[in-house]
Specification:
The protein is 36% helix and 22% strand. It folds into 3 domains: 249 residues, Glutamine Phosphoribosylpyrophosphate, subunit 1, domain 1, CATH 3.60.20.10; 194 residues, Rossmann fold, CATH 3.40.50; 146 residues, Rossmann fold (3-Layer(aba) Sandwich). It has 20 helices and 24 strands. With 621 residues, it is α/β, with parallel strands linked by helices. It binds fructose -6-phosphate (F6R). Fructose -6-phosphate (F6R) binds next to α9 and α17.
């Protein structure tokens, strides 16, 4: 939530600081789009130049066209997802302190802001905004005024703050320095030649450098054109090895599609294929990416808890069916924000699997920490390299979906299911639940999925057409059983997020226990029909549920396996997906539902990449 960019370069290239920061903000806008702002250190040694505007980044760009900023060497930029105070020009970041000499931007929530505000107001400081950020700015300003250097003042400020923050600041008197600090919110450093970068995410600077440094909890970083100095909370310099970012700028472009979301839906064959690639070690065993978990621990695990939020939690629910089936270990799936407040039963024999695209979802981070405090082993299934969950988990299995820019998750969902399956296969192999030939067969089934996804994409026109004809619907229901149940919930979530249509996903069997009261004449109901080749009873039970809603006037839209003629008999519209073993079907059946939501939202004229009120990584609890 909130995107942050910082840049410092050499003197004499005056436009670059503004261009780099505006470019970075454009790439980070998915993190929040309530307002945007930029601060730039120019030749004016008294005051940092700023511009900020409520609304999307385009408003800030227009403002800069109308009132250009002077040239400068250091700049910071922010795109906001509002927490404290409505999205107005005044509450937009940057916030100024020390009469405009210091500018600060912030991602996160400062929990003790009220107490600090009272303390600072008593010294005569006048607050202009409703934000918690301005408090941090004035605290920093007062420490600089007392004679501290900007990095020292940043460390002292960070020590006074409670909660979550990434802070970046510049000082008009020091035109070639940007200082940053982080606790519980992301900040990465990009290493350039004669210039350096800061960003909430590597996409902020990926078009300029693919060499990055991660910052750990409570570290402060100072960047100048030629130097990056990282210190811990005690001012000790920390040596950090840079890492290479696997993907390039093109991966973060629309690639000819109208939206990032459409592009990311089409990235799904490679997201799954890349997640599967290279997973077998020299002994022929599956392997995790980073970190080591003692095999003895994994063999003695007696419970698995998958923690995640939103779409990632639905991926976890899908994975649960497979992991439980293959390993015979009980698997629970829990929303991360509920997990630690429930006083869950967790022990050293519990394996917690944290699923997160961003690796920065605060609810999931806090659940990971809670589980670790109880002695559990934590494996992360994470997309963003070097993110907090990837770092804090005992081991990581990366989903290699590439950057997911559209706020609503699509390719990460498929990659998360794939990684969850790999983990299930890995555990089944390790614990001896499956013979090697069974493991090979499962891996072969997974290997066939990318080509099948491609076929779903290649035949998506009918669902697009139906979606366009349904732009005026008020409510859409989604039904599924077994692995089709989380798929139904994910389909409903996509429609809510993108098209702002009331949508509910139900377990098909639950319908008659209440929700069927919602069904009236012409009510659209999507049904994810299981394969007729799976457990026969499952197929016929879901078709009975279809009959129940049809009898009450529902218009049924059925996702079924190719060749399932019976399903077609029960449907106003049928959308076929290639046949696959039952546990693999969610990787196919969710795709028409993603496309449906995308197309319907586009037909309504909505911004499918940046739906209202949302932000890509939810870095506040
Ligand atoms: C829905 C969506 C969210 C995320 C959730 C978790 O389309 O994107 O529900 O899945 O906020 O985010 P990550 O996976 O980053 O932890």
């Amino acid at each position: 939530m909130c995107g942050i960019v910082g840049y410092v370069g050499k003197l004499g290239d005056g436009e670059r600081a503004r261009e780099v920061v505006m470019g970075g903000l454009a790439r980070l806008e998915y993190r929040g789009y309530d307002s945007a702002g930029i601060a730039l250190v120019s030749d004016d040694r008294d005051r940092v130049a700023t511009a900020k505007k409520a609304g999307k980044l385009a408003n800030l760009s227009a403002e800069l066209e109308a009132n250009p900023l002077p040239e400068g060497t250091a700049a910071i930029g922010h795109t906001r997802w509002a927490t404290h105070g409505p999205p107005t020009d005044t509450n937009a970041h940057p916030h100024l302190a020390l009469g405009g000499r210091i500018a600060i931007i912030h991602n996160g929530i400062i929990e003790n802001h009220a107490e600090l505000r009272t303390e600072l107001a008593a010294t005569g400081i006048n607050f202009l905004s409703d934000t918690d950020t301005e408090v941090a700015g004035h605290l920093l300003g007062s420490l600089v005024a007392s004679g501290m250097s900007l990095p020292d003042a940043m460390r002292a400020t960070a020590r006074r703050l409670e909660g979550a923050f990434t802070l970046l600041a510049v000082d008009a008197t020091d035109p070639q320095t940007v200082v940053g600090a982080r606790r519980n919110s992301p900040l990465v450093v990009g290493l350039g030649e004669g210039e350096n970068y800061l960003g909430s995410d590597v996409v902020a600077f990926i078009e300029h450098t693919r060499t990055a440094l991660e910052l750990k909890q409570d570290e402060v970083v100072t960047i100048t054109p030629d130097e990056v100095i990282v210190t811990d909370a005690h001012s000790e310099v920390v040596e950090r090895e840079p890492y290479h970012v696997d993907w390039d700028a093109a991966a973060a472009e629309k690639g000819g599609f109208d939206s990032f979301m459409d592009k990311e839906i089409h990235d799904q064959p490679s997201a799954v294929a890349d997640t599967l690639r290279g997973r077998v070690d020299e002994r022929g065993r599956l392997k995790l990416d980073e970190g080591i978990v003692d095999e003895y621990i994994l063999k003695s695990v007696d419970k698995i808890i998958i923690i995640a939020c939103g779409t990632a939690a639905y991926a976890g629910q899908v994975a649960r069916y497979a992991i439980e089936h293959w390993t015979r270990v009980p698997v629970e799936v829990e929303l991360a924000h509920e997990f630690r407040y429930r006083d869950p039963i967790v022990s050293v024999k519990t394996l917690v699997v944290a699923v997160s695209q961003s690796g920065e979802t605060m609810d999931t981070i806090m659940a990971v920490r809670h589980a670790q405090q109880q002695g559990a082993t934590v494996i992360g299934i994470v997309n963003a390299q070097g993110s907090t969950i990837a770092r804090e988990a005992d081991a990581v299995l990366y989903t290699r979906a590439g950057p997911e820019i559209a706020v609503a998750s699509t390719k990460a969902f498929l990659a998360q299911i794939t990684a969850g399956y790999l983990l299930g296969i890995y555990l089944a192999e390790l614990r001896g639940n499956k013979f090697p030939d069974e493991i090979d067969a499962l891996l072969r089934e997974l290997d066939e999925i990318p080509a099948k996804i491609q076929r779903v994409l290649d035949t998506s026109e009918p669902i697009r057409e139906v979606a366009r004809s349904m732009a005026n619907e008020q409510t859409v229901l989604f039904l599924g059983r077994h692995v089709g149940f989380p798929v139904a919930m994910e389909g409903a979530l996509k429609l809510k997020e993108l098209a702002y249509i009331h949508a509910e996903g139900f377990a098909a069997g639950e319908l008659k226990h209440g929700p069927i009261a919602l069904v009236e004449q012409d009510q659209p109901v999507f049904v994810v029909v299981p394969s007729p080749r799976g457990r026969e009873s499952l197929h016929s039970k879901v078709l009975s549920n279809v009959q129940e809603v049809r009898a009450r006037g529902a218009r049924t839209l059925v996702i079924a396996e190719e060749g399932d003629a019976v399903a077609a008999d029960h449907a106003a519209h049928v959308f076929y997906v290639p046949s696959a073993p039952v546990l693999m079907t969610p990787l196919l059946s969710v795709i028409p539902l993603q496309i449906f939501a995308l197309e319907l939202a586009a037909a309504k004229g909505y911004d499918v990449d940046q739906p209202r009120n949302l932000a890509k990584s939810v870095t506040v609890e």
